[in-house]
Amino acid sequence: MESLLQVRVAARQLVAEDIAAYEFAPVDGAELPAFEAGAHIDVHVPGGPVRQYSLFQLPDGSQRYRIGVLRDPQSRGGSVRLIDTVKEGDVLSVSAPRNHFALHAGPAHAVLFAGGIGITPILCMAEQLSREGRSFELHYCGRTPARMAFLDRLHGASFAERVQVHADDGAPEQRLDARASIGAPAADRHLYVCGPTGFMDHVLATARELGWTEAQLHREYFAAAPIDHSADGPFEIELKHSGRCITVKADQSAAQALIDAGVPLSLSCEAGVCGTCQTRVLEGEPDHRDLYLTDDEKREHFMPCCSRSCTPRLVLDL
Ligand code: FES
Q: What is the pTM of this model?
């Protein structure tokens, strides 16, 4: 199992309505592992769940991890508990950064889309692209400026002229025209999107309509829509390397069945959005329920924390 880092809340600041920025410093002078734009950390909310938060500021030598947290009463409760109970000076456990939303390598132009709290990884990407002298533009959408974090920071950034802010309650001419902003696909253009599910689905669907290929579309979901489990049935998992067969009962996840059977499996979000549990499928047809894998990746992989099986048996590369 991955070892956790102990961090102290060095600062906590409201950066928009219902959004707090937290700054974590290592306890006892330990070093915090470095990361690149798009990375997130797992935060073990005291007395509560584990939640993933994107890091919004690149390492700057100060040994800090910085996250932005939206207090969303509609969410599964981790963020509300974090904002309501965690204050400066508290000590928390966090994971080392993981990155399932990394920038492409090379000189291609990046079109960045952020919706609401989705600005956190996108801000970090803009900083990295700017630092590396690479070409990009950033579209930041929100309901109203009061609920949009880091506007001051973006307006004061060296790359401010590359940022367009689209507020739902603003003048019609500044609202997002997704087709115009996404533009025509080209081999040297990549699109990155993060934000609420409906916003992301809209941006991605528009890009696909315009002819963009999956290889150039990159996204990070924060939360999955609730899954209907009423028709779930049991199925079997065969572990290729040992030949063992494990039954997944109707009321348990494949991940839970694997862990109960002593199979080592890393879990984090347990909701099909973070990518931690990705497992290769060798035979059988998964019933994909995650928001993480691309259509191409779904041909070979599945996420046992949330996905099930359309066939009576899945053979996994475990
Ligand atoms: Fe996050 Fe499975 S644990 S996708």
A: 0.84
